[in-house]
UniProtKB/TrEMBL annotation:
This is Phenazine biosynthesis protein PhzF family. Signal peptide: none annotated. Belongs to the PhzF family. The active site is at residue 64. It comes from Amycolatopsis xylanica. GO terms for molecular function: isomerase activity.
């Protein structure tokens, strides 16, 4: 039997419950509004055109804003539309669960249908998204050289156990593993040069990681194509990274944690689960700003 929570979600998704646009601000992958990655969530956005959504995203100034029309969700950075955004999906799911009850949701995005499960414990909503089918390929020598030059890194800075790849789980991310935590902490890159390389490659972020263990990774995500120097938590990149680890055979237990935003002063915690299903599961919380 359909639960009351699911019934409320169905009524909202059909357009019955909310008629006017409602602009919300959440920080995802944290329980502290001073941590995590801020995202805009615009409910009842069906009447907005592309230019209006881009203008609102730019005014909010977050790395992404989700625009929700029933079960249709679109994502805009301050500069352009993005096919899929993990932290804005988590923020949207938490916002909806807080208003209409927890349970399963399905979002129709430019990257395909994204299933999200929400639960509540001790008053805190947790959301788990399942990404589009993930895959990964080795980076070419030219791609690697161009990224390293823009980052001002050398090949000696890399961890040879984690080869550079281009990974996909809704959109593409260039995955690069630092050999030390110190190298990851010293991020001082050429914004214009890296943005140009990423634009030509069609990559959403460069996912820089350092492996503390097989189940714990630290990450930083430059995002110049969106007009953002760095993302504090990138659920889409975490999902792509899960697919990457599966491809290269470095999964460990199949469940791992990504710590992101630490070097920005906005710590974020992303939990990633990988199994033999095509999509990757990414779990986190979100809090109203």
């Amino acid at each position: 039997m359909e639960s009351m929570e699911n019934h409320r979600w169905t009524r909202w998704a059909s357009g019955v419950t909310i008629e006017d646009m409602d602009v919300l601000r959440y920080s995802a992958f944290t329980t502290d509004p001073h941590g995590g990655n801020p995202a805009g969530v615009v409910l009842g956005a069906g009447h907005l055109g592309d230019d209006e959504m881009l203008r609102i995203a730019a005014e909010l100034g977050y790395s992404e804003t989700a625009f929700v029309d029933g079960d249709r969700v679109r994502y805009f950075s301050p500069l352009a539309e993005v096919d899929f955004c993990g932290h804005a999906t988590i923020a949207t799911a938490v916002a909806l669960a807080e208003r209409f009850g927890a349970g399963p949701m399905r979002f129709h995005t430019n990257a395909g249908e994204i299933a999200v499960e929400t639960t509540v414990a001790d008053g805190q909503v947790t959301a788990t998204l399942t990404s589009a089918p993930a895959h990964s390929r080795p980076a070419t020598a030219t791609e690697l050289d161009e990224v390293l030059a823009a980052l001002r890194w050398d090949r000696a800075d890399l961890d040879p156990a984690f080869p550079p790849h281009v990974a996909f789980a809704g959109n593409e991310h260039f995955v690069l593993a630092a050999g030390t935590r110190e190298r990851l902490a010293k991020l001082d890159y050429d914004f214009e040069a890296l943005g140009d390389v990423m634009s030509r490659g069609g990559w959403t972020t460069v996912h820089l990681v350092w492996a503390e263990s097989a189940e714990l990774f630290h990450a930083r995500d430059p995002f110049p194509p969106g007009g953002v120097v760095e993302d504090a938590a990138t659920g889409a990149a975490a999902a792509a990274f899960g697919g990457y680890l599966r491809t290269i055979g470095k999964l460990g237990s199949g469940r791992f944690t990504v710590l992101q935003g630490e070097d920005m002063g906005r710590p974020s915690v992303l939990t990633v689960e990988v199994d033999d299903r095509p999509g990757i599961r990414v779990t986190g919380t979100a809090v109203r700003i």
